[in-house]
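Hi R.,

Here's the chain you asked about this morning:
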Amino acid sequence: MDFAALLRSLWEYRLLLWVFCKRDLKGRYTQTVLGMGWVLLTPLITVGVFVIVFGVMVKVPTDGLPTIMFYLVAVIPWYAFMNVLNPSVQMIEGNAGLITKVYFPRLLIGGSYAVGAAVDFLIAYVLLITPFAIGYGVWTIQLLLIMPFLLLSTLMIGLGVGLILAPVNARYRDVKHFVPLGLQLFYYSTPAIYPVSAVPAWAEPWYAVNPLSLVINSYRAAMVGQWPSATTLWTLGGMAVVCFVSGVVVFQRQDRQIVDTL
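And the predicted structure, written out as tokens:
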């Protein structure tokens, strides 16, 4: 695959990315009473349930962190991951009418989903994570400076996996039904509702290579003034690059056959 030609094509159609981003954001929140307020309400409701069920009733340990913050820095990155992965899987099917009529770099559609997920995350980060962290006294410079790297890694992994599955879903629509089930299993194998310190020793290797586990643990470590280890950063960054590049390569190789499957 000619990456130089791909980059030139993406740059030539860069304004189309902005059009897709506006379309997706407008379509997501138009004709709703709360509009973009759902960006804040959805994680707040989820965190509220977790606090009541796991914090008050079950009393899951939080490794000394405030219960709300323990769940908040897990739920919001998880939603960012889902908000780019789910629509990316269905990007070909959902845009079949456009794809079959005119040529443009199909990667721009996935890019628009990543931008939309980033916008939602940043709104929640600024209006939820930051105020709660300051209020609970766990706001640190680490929590601010590590965020761009963790967000970029999360989006690259979600988009990369989505690009790999999108051509498969265009041929076999079972994929879009399997993805939510796979995400549910992945969610419970990620320390969103429990700390890694609570998992048995035999399961620890999985959490050392689970990218969302590395992201969530990095946010939690940052709240106590710690930087993620070099191993964590290299592992997460490496997985993000591998997932994204693999997704681009697989998607571009299937690009010529995409129209024929619709």
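The CA atoms of residues 169 and 177 lie 10 Å apart.

Let me know if you need anything else.
M.
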